[in-house]
Design a protein that fits this description.
By secondary structure, the protein is of the alpha+beta class. Helices cover 18% and strands 34% of the residues. The protein starts with 20 loop residues before the first strand and ends with a strand.
């Protein structure tokens, strides 16, 4: 029996701007698009039901909150992160940082937390109720971070960078637990977790989509009871003795490409020089005249309501 495949679109929506990002509401028949402004569309209407403009010439990305589903966020080329609420039809908050945010991902378990991938080689996790300080700063990339996505469990997230590497972070960890790279893989522009959290997908500049295991050493497929017991025993040993210097060095060591390794060394030298310069300024200034900013507040320029 031959099956006819229909390749025509079910519906078409015409916008008056170039669209750079899109995301769908998790419960209602609504979706949001990002361009010169942020538009919210209904499946049954040909024009946007809401339009939001708040300073940015171009909005790069838009993402709905999977828990508080009427709230969504966007990042623009004016270095801003904006929060919107569909119920009130107005923007809520706007955060301006020193460098541009490329992508945002909401934690699917913790409703108020989101992580943004930034041009300054770091990722920042914020609580939407308190945007004046980051909950965590995630470091290790040596070039701009271009995309980020959370695991379905909300305990980890994956990031892709212009430095041609993919890193997996714990949701509250300052440094990555694993790094993936190959000789042929170029700049990584997109990363996503699979629905069961077992795999990571990456899209890179060399026109390839790659699939990685979320846990590189994990054996996939059906496991025998004795294999499960052995894996649990090994994990318990690592957890119990992980504080010992020898074990910590083995579990944390990851081989890096020469370019990333050298750049990381250079960045470490520059940052240490800046810290030393700051200490000297404080030492040779009047007491209290210089108030050093904590790392979690340093990159925040202003917050608008």
């Amino acid at each position: 029996v031959t099956q006819t495949v229909d390749h025509t679109a079910v519906a078409e929506f015409t916008s008056d701007q170039v669209l750079r990002g899109i995301d769908h509401h998790y419960e209602r028949s609504l979706f949001a698009t990002a361009g010169e402004k942020v538009d919210v569309w209904d499946h049954e209407r040909s024009t946007p039901v809401h339009s939001f403009v708040w300073g940015a010439d171009s909005v790069e990305s838009v993402r709905f909150n999977p828990v508080e589903s009427d709230i969504f966020t966007s990042c623009g080329n004016d270095r801003s992160i904006a929060l919107y609420d569909i119920r009130s039809g107005t923007p809520l908050h706007k955060l301006v940082m020193q460098t541009k945010t490329n992508s945002i991902a909401w934690n699917p378990i913790e409703a108020f937390n989101f992580t943004c991938a930034n041009e300054d080689c770091c990722l920042y996790t914020y609580d939407m109720r308190r945007l004046d300080i980051a909950k965590n700063v995630h470091k290790d990339h040596v070039s701009a971070v271009l995309d980020v996505d959370y695991s379905p469990t909300g305990r980890e997230f994956v990031s892709g960078s212009y430095d041609r590497s993919i890193r997996i972070f714990k949701y509250d960890g300052g440094h990555s637990r694993d790094v993936y790279h190959t000789k042929r893989m170029q700049r990584v522009f997109g990363v996503r977790y699979s629905g069961d959290g077992s795999y990571v997908f990456s899209a890179s500049d060399d026109m390839n989509v790659r699939i990685w295991k979320a846990k590189a050493s994990q054996k996939m497929g059906t496991l025998l009871p004795r294999e499960k017991s052995k894996q649990s025993y090994n994990a318990a040993l690592v957890k119990r003795y992980g504080h010992m210097p020898e074990i910590k060095r083995i579990t944390r060591h990851r081989h890096l490409p020469k370019s990333i390794y050298k750049t990381k060394q250079l960045r470490t030298t520059v940052m240490e020089s800046e810290r030393k310069k700051q200490r000297n300024r404080i030492k040779h200034s009047a007491p209290g005249s210089i108030q050093p900013k904590p790392q979690r507040k340093k990159k925040i320029v202003t917050r608008l309501e």
